[in-house]
Automatic annotation (TrEMBL):
PROSITE patterns: ANK_REP_REGION, ANK_REPEAT. InterPro entries: Ankyrin_rpt, Ankyrin_rpt-contain_sf. Keywords: ANK repeat, Repeat. This is Uncharacterized protein. Pfam families: Ank_2 (PF12796). The keyword Transmembrane helix does not apply. Gene3D superfamilies: Ankyrin repeat-containing domain. ANK repeats lie at residues 40-72.
Length: 121
């Protein structure tokens, strides 16, 4: 259970999902950890990536978010973006150095399960 003091930081999850990059950046500037996570272990980066919010993903990366931080189900932000078929987010994460083999299933395994050629040349 969150305290009232955590409420502004808890609102960050909705901002990440919605791609409200400016408001999320303000919270980061006010001390919100870039790797803030919810009770399921979903980081802000995971939520932004899963919902296809490329600009928010960029802002979180710039703030130092862990590219390969997995949630409690061992899913990585890159695997979430692959699952949702978000090409722009996939490109942003890979360009920043995200590991396609992080997590279980990894982004590479997720692409193979969904018969996508995300990681083939």
């Amino acid at each position: 259970m969150s305290s009232d003091a955590d409420a502004p930081f808890d609102a960050a999850f909705d901002l990440a999902r919605a791609g409200d990059t400016d408001r999320l950046a303000a919270l980061l500037a006010a001390g919100l950890p870039a790797d803030h996570a919810n009770e399921s272990g979903d980081s802000l980066l995971m939520l932004a990536a899963y919902h296809g919010r490329a600009d928010t993903v960029r802002a979180l990366i710039a703030a130092g978010a862990d590219l390969d931080r997995c949630n409690d189900r061992q899913q990585s932000p890159l695997a979430g973006a692959v699952f949702k078929n978000s090409d722009e987010v996939i490109a942003v994460l890979l360009a920043a150095g995200a590991d396609p083999d992080a997590g279980t299933p990894s982004a590479r395994q997720t692409a193979a399960m969904l018969d996508r050629d995300t990681f083939t040349a």
